[in-house]
Amino acid sequence: MHRRDFVQQALLGSAALAAWPRTGLLRPDGAFIHQTLRVNGERLNGWLTAFDRVGRTATGINRVAYSPADLEGRAFTLDLFRQSGLTPRIDAAGNIVARVPGTRADAKPIVIGSHIDSVTDGGNFDGPVGSFAAIEVARTLAESQRRLVHPLEVVVWQNEEGGTYGSRCWAGLVSEADLDKVARSGKTIREGIGLIGGNVAQLASVHREAGSVHCYLELHIEQGGLLEKAGLQIGVVQGIVGLRWFEITITGFANHAGATPMDQRQDAMLAAARFTVAVNDAVRRVPGRQVATVGRVNVTPNTTNVIPGQVVLTVDLRDIEQRTIEQFTQTFEQLGRDIGAATGTQFRFSRLTDSKPALADARVMDLVQGAATTLGFTQQRMPSGAGHDAQEMAHLGPMGMIFIPSVGGISHSPREFSHAADITNGANVLLQAVLAADRALD
Amino acid sequence: MHRRDFVQQALLGSAALAAWPRTGLLRPDGAFIHQTLRVNGERLNGWLTAFDRVGRTATGINRVAYSPADLEGRAFTLDLFRQSGLTPRIDAAGNIVARVPGTRADAKPIVIGSHIDSVTDGGNFDGPVGSFAAIEVARTLAESQRRLVHPLEVVVWQNEEGGTYGSRCWAGLVSEADLDKVARSGKTIREGIGLIGGNVAQLASVHREAGSVHCYLELHIEQGGLLEKAGLQIGVVQGIVGLRWFEITITGFANHAGATPMDQRQDAMLAAARFTVAVNDAVRRVPGRQVATVGRVNVTPNTTNVIPGQVVLTVDLRDIEQRTIEQFTQTFEQLGRDIGAATGTQFRFSRLTDSKPALADARVMDLVQGAATTLGFTQQRMPSGAGHDAQEMAHLGPMGMIFIPSVGGISHSPREFSHAADITNGANVLLQAVLAADRALD
Question: What is the CATH number of the domain that holds B274?
């Protein structure tokens, strides 16, 4: 089905009208708008405000997975589930899951959720916004006595920031070796899962098959500044960008900073600087939303009066198109050859990480966009530059994400902030998208 | 006196002929050349070869001041003094000094020498060449029974690489606080001086007044590649460059490397890279031998997936002209403002070190150049980009230095090397310059 037709059917056509929540009205332009079914934004934002004290330190929110603050946050969240009429359980992977049965016995579940763990010195919005909005959506549905055709699963994933562990367990992508990795809390993933009430011996029990999920929807703060800068309310996420991490070793020759003339140097830091500038220029020269970052730079011998003999730096390259990643890989390698030749240095490239883009489902994007449009919100389509549990859930079924603005584009920082109105808007889009998806994706 | 006339007088004029060593001949072009008084190059290079085992490790020569290898090197050197008929003593600063009386009782001394301590993982030529050549010059004079008008002092300075401590004591520039600084050996300067036979309680006894030295001459390897590249045998040193060390703190804003669009970043590393390239371009654009090096770069948080929020880097700027240092200081500060404005970052400059150029005496340069020319060596005038004990001795009297080529321009490295023929040439220039200075500088 053509996408536009599909949305029209879902939102406006006769089938959609039958499927759409019954209380509502048609706007003069023909759009159908549901008047009564809205989340309780005040309640949702009240939860977030109360949650701000959990893991709050002088340097930011510190709710890293498996830490005491993470446990406290999970207890807080379990309480929210319960007071919202949901019955939460801890699955074997340590995720908090509540299931609301649907009207059709054999229907696949609609899954909504996010995470509550934070990075070190992070903020209170990355994760909790989507987690609490999912609870609020389920509560709104329950309070309005609206029962979906599909089961609704509300999930708060464990240890998203450490590597989307909870959702990766559902996708069957966590290995025994992964379980032995040490998380930021100092505990292994294995120990951490046990600590939060999971059971690694039963990990296979949470693994779901591809195609077993009706759709997955996640509300999240943007973490960048595109929406705020454009003055838009909602981002319709096209997917999570693919990522390639390069580690580049630049070898020159360490020599005396005073006695070596400028034209006789093999200065690895000068080469690294030229490369850093050239990578930035190359990525900005081409239209698109690709990003590249030189984030880690280690200089040898790193002494004021010695020309650097070696620099090891990293480039973090991301785009929603794998083709773009491949093209810039070529560009960067060519820059390394050219700058190496010009500076008498050698560039050696290796890769630390390589993950492919996780695309949102085209139909789910249309549903999210339709919901936002119907609610009267300004919006645009955009990739997610950050990783999310949604990228793992894309293995199990159609996936979509909803972004709301981050003030100043700041995240992973104590200065991370989103306005209450935007959070409410996002939760309402999530609610409307769930309702539309319940009728439209089979 | 005009410099050219002065040299002609010293080398060719009637007064010079009277003063010049008596055995010699006039070349067809009128230059007077001394035939018999030459150093024993084989002996000198034999000493250097034997010395190569002292402090030799798998990673280079490690003869850092006050280390066991330094002590072993000093014992080796004391033995050279003695077998050369010199009577060495350890002065209160720990320098090895031998004095050969002159024929005129009230004459100020001619001082020649260098050092034998090395950097970590250094080579066998930086220091020992000039130290052993000074001993060889005194020995040659003694063997030829040539007595100078002026006393000749042969000095092997202690701890040159750690900050020209031995010669700074002569210049009265070592403070009590300096004595408490910790040297690379792990010992304080105070402890080190005691260990090598000095006596810090008597340190004032080594302090000499300005004007108390007839002249100071030091032979040294170039440590850069100018002479080798130009195919020249001798460098007539114009002085030791002035040096200014900047520490520059660049503050941007750390943010998510995936979610932050390229045009919304305040990337401190990008700013640092642009600055590094711009400093290099600026210094190379202007004719001259000024050098600038970004040698130390520390990035925060230095993580692959975070846009750097802060970079602290150093610039080492050197030139023989103080005016040039002031001009580039202005240039760098302007670059900081411009690049800061362009990248949304702030540059804060501070200075770690500031030392003025130590100029060679014009008459001494002429004598060195005359000696090199007379001996038939190709030569050029050039600054020393590296620091030397000569810079301290410039406080006490006319100073000059003689450079010989460093293969590949490499120093402070196990790959440091100078050819035996060049070392012999340098020692002969030192000998001839001492003889000329003995007659010419009063």
Answer: 3.30.70.360
